[in-house]
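SAMPLE LOG
Freezer: B-3
Tube label: C17
Construct: single chain, 586 aa
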Amino acid sequence: MATSPSTPSTPSQPASARPRRVFRPKLLDSLAGYQRTQLGADVGAGIAVGLVALPLAMAFAIASGLGPQAGLFTAIIAGFLISALGGSKVQIGGPAGAFIVIVYGIVHRYGVANLIIATAMSGVLLLAMGFFRLGTLIRFIPVAVIIGFTNGIAVLIALSQVKDFLGLEVQGSVPADFFGLLRTLWQALPSWSLAATWVALVSLAGLIAWQTVLPRAALRWSVLKPLQRLPGSVVVLVCATAWVAISGWQVETIGSRFGGIPSSLPSWQWPAFSWDTVRFLFMPALTLALLGAIESLLCARVADGMIDDRHDPNQELMAQGVANLVTPFFGGMPATGTIARTMTNVRNGATSPVAGMVHAATLLAIVLLAAPLAAHIPLSAMAAILMFVAWNMGEWREFLHLRQYRMPYRLTLLSVFALTVIVDLTVAVEVGLVAACLTFIYRISSLSRADAVGAADYPALAGQEQRIHAYRLHGALFFGAVKLLENMADHLPHRVLVLDFKNVLYVDSSGADSLADLLRACGKHQVALVICGLAYQPLDILTRCGMVQSMDPSNLCTTMPQAINRGLAIDAPPPTVDDSPSRHVP
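STRUCTURE (predicted):
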């Protein structure tokens, strides 16, 4: 039987017209027509990303108050799930620097068991956000809020690494709050280690040189070009580890603090937790979910520009949700899309999510085969890597460009930055979003206005200024702009009020209520209300609230000239009637 052209199964039908599945990973589309050359490119890119992710995963976990294996397990398990189930071709998932401050605070305040619960809760939230197609709403978060807390997180990451960078001896754990951290570092400053500081400074200088000096030198000497393919962080770790081992310097290492990392994957673990504590984890879990969504979708957008593709934000959020729901029960930590590793993936020629899956397999092979070697890595070198990550993470030039922006933008950015550093990231995001919403409401309300229409526009109104008032409304008639209608109700004309809604795009329930109040005020003072130019949305809400039905149909016009003529007709004096007694019928 021939298939009708209108059926969804017709090959000629455009993809945009077909019904979209709720859950469809990008991997399924990428494997259609997958070739051997693509496999070779993806394997090479995946191995390169795996080498880059190795030191970063351990460093992020250590900075978060966890063991290095937590970062590696996260990069392996979450990295594989995000690539296999995600909505981007080249996105690489794993532990991220943005989570360090939040995770450290949860571990310090509630313990590792409740970190598992908070991470799983964030996974459920991310999964729900993607399922209900809320991925595009993440883009509505203002840039000032994102830059403010990103720079604040970078500062806190750098401060958290001062202890290992200088080799300070601190009794117990380092406090999570800003002033407690500064006080602890100041008190421990006399215990600084010259050897650890030298290792950290040389490692940091090596990273900076690898990123800035090596590319310039490679332009002059082509023999150096192959070195650019090596991750600078891996080179620094290898050199620092060899340096400490050969010199015999007494520097704290992964082995001396954590006893090394296991050479096998963990088994499923169900934490012992208290429901009394879980109810306090909702805000940290929500912060993890929002931050993970922002990081992953921003990273996916950047990657789209590099490979000329378009990711599915809702599928990406669902993949992030699955990863964060599964990974913590296998010894992992929160995960999201990571810009540095994704860019490395793209630059090394990745063509599909297979590269991200190979990156996870590469890390698994390293853990199974070379785990004992990680015990000799000096923590001061790891601190140098995180210092470098923190510097690259921040948008520091935005502080220099603040004069170019309006005062609300400056206050929002600086307040979010200060609250992130001094108080708490969750509070900073809440205050930033509230401030951004208030600023937006103020700006939109200032754009809403009512322009008086007089005899210069319509000569027929000459001499009728006291009897007929006419206004053109502009903008949105919402709760922040109802003052316009309240002013009209306080200064009603003698006979007719004409309102032109041609330039009103939106009316909310508060605007509709205020308009109904204006209609009642007009009725009380025997003033006719004439409305014209209602677009679809304003007409719909005024109809649903019953206002249209309560008006005289003749007072609902299409254009302003019709409304003016209607007003003049209403205001016309009644015909003279001779009511002398002789005319009355007895």
